[in-house]
Amino acid sequence: FTGIRDIVGGRSGAYEKELRKAREIAFQELGEQAKALGADAVVGIDIDYETVGKDGSMLMVSVSGTAVKTRR
């Protein structure tokens, strides 16, 4: 169904909801990893979306950035 809606230019609420949830998880994990390294912030963040699996049936969200410690 998502594919059909994409063809006609519509939006899939279910697809957008899952994408938003995956993005939130990716950012949360990035923050946790930075904190474990002793960082205060992450800069230069890049977010990528990729379809994987048979016929692009799965969506992968990856987030990367540079963990930094700020001066106070």
UniProtKB/TrEMBL annotation:
SUPFAM superfamilies membership: YbjQ-like
Pfam family, one: YbjQ_1
Family stated for the protein in its record: Belongs to the UPF0145 family.
Protein name as it appears in the record: Heavy metal-binding domain-containing protein
Lineage: Bacteria, Pseudomonadati, Pseudomonadota, Gammaproteobacteria, Enterobacterales
